[in-house]
Amino acid sequence: MKTKHNSDRLAVAVIGAGASGLMAAYAAASGAGSAGRTADVTVYDLNPEPGRKLLVTGNGRCNLSNETVDPSFYPGSDRALLSSVFGRCPPAETLAVFAKAGLRIRRDHAGRLYPASNQAAGVREALLWLCRGAGVRTVSGCEVLSVRRSGAGFELNGSIRADRVIFAFGSPAAPGNGGTDSLHLLKDLGVKTEPFTPALAPFHLAGFSKLQLRGVRAQGSIAVYAGKKQLAADAGELQFTDYGVSGIPAMNVSIDAAAPAAAGVRLTVVIDSAPGAPPELPADAFSAAGLGDGDMPVSLFLNGMMPRRLTDSYMRIAGIGRDTLMSQTENSARKKLCELVRRASFAVSGLGGFNEAQVCRGGAAPGHISYEDLSLKGVPGAFVCGEAANVTGRCGGYNLQWAWSSGLLAGLSAVQGESF
User: Fold this and answer.
1) Rounded to two decimals, what is the model's pTM?
2) Could you give the CA distance from residue 21 to residue 53 in angstroms, rounded to a whole number?
């Protein structure tokens, strides 16, 4: 596989056929003409088919964006970079690209945007159709193992010539769906990087198995602490497992926990399983709830707040029988139960690994990416987008929106910028 080098044409190599890579390839191939150039764009990917990860996003529904997008939804990421990219390639512009392929989009109650079909396959097909129409060539089953400077351009795998290269290789999250760690490609070009660590991952909690809550879903809130300092908090539907807690709120706060967890900082997760309960719960809830003489079973009182299995687990740990009346409950047991309901605290034994993570932190280090065009500083002709640009967003379509906007800007910059 050799790409002919011709000074009258730009040979553009895109490394990675994920969301950002396909958008970058389309942008480069379709945008070269406005700069009076012709671009031969080839996408290289180790997977047997392009856009493989897209098919599993949003549980197969593909939450491709959100009606509200700004840097605040990307905790810990470079806000100046985000502001610049979204200013140059705003969400509306990327959604207009999909509209060219006939993709219809719907909004849910929370402002999340999905394809009207509720099928991620429709998003992938739209991207592939756009790429084919623009003349993009895709080479599947081809892992790029090396990129080095060669004259004014680059040489991939020792034989593939390119005038421009766009790094869109993603991260090692979800290796079963094609995630890999290709940071060495940036390092070999002298770009400083930060290692990938799992983000948007579930919490593994010490001693959690004794609750026997696998499969339970409940509305609640979750906060993560380093000592007494709260790192992050969120609320919504929590999903309990054998080993800990998952669900969108847990995933969201895991972003802020990723770096300290990787550094060995001791973290604690605090779960409120009844955020809608009266504020007087815990200590005086049994007497202050207006229940007369207390001849109501404790289990019945709590079942109005949270799922029965969660009630049963907390009562068992507090030493309260299921048929025990509120008036019969010892003060120490009440205190323990209320603490579990409103402030159950667990030591974090770890975050879910790459197999469980949706995205990763890491990539090109801050300061090594141009805010204006996503070029890599000190490496003329090289650009970066998607996860490789070290941006991580919350659940809700923010990571895919970053992929679309950064891919669009990187692709256009590669063919419309000044000659190198």
Assistant:
1) 0.90
2) 12
pLDDT, one tens digit per residue, over 127-184 is 999 999 999 999 999 999 999 999 999 999 999 999 999 999 999 998 887 788 999 9
- Give CA–CA dist 325/56, Å, rounded: 48
One-character DSSP codes across 283-327: TTHHHHSS-TT--SBHHHHHHTTS-HHHHHHHHHHHT--TT-BGG
* Annotated domain spans of the chain: 10-198+359-416, 203-351
Top-confidence range, 22-26, 178-182, 252-256: 22-26
Sort 73 into a burial class: Cβ within 10 Å, 0-12 / 13-18 / 19+. Answer: buried
Instruction: Count other C-beta atoms under 10 Å from residue 274's C-beta.
Output: 23
Helix (H, G, I), strand (E, B) or coil at 128: helix
| pLDDT single digits (tens) 29-66 | 999 988 888 999 999 999 999 998 898 888 889 999 99
- C-beta neighbour count of 192 within 10 angstroms: 13
Superfamily grouping for domain 10-198+359-416: FAD/NAD(P)-binding domain (3.50.50.60)
| Strand blocks (E) in 91-181 | 105-107, 112-115, 137-140, 147-150, 153-156, 160-162, 164-167
Q: What are the residues facing 153 on neighbouring strands?
A: 150
382-384/203-205 β-pairing: unpaired
Within 10 A of 357 (CB to CB), how many other CB atoms are there? Answer: 26
Residue 336 token pair:
């323990």
Tokens of 10: 């730009």
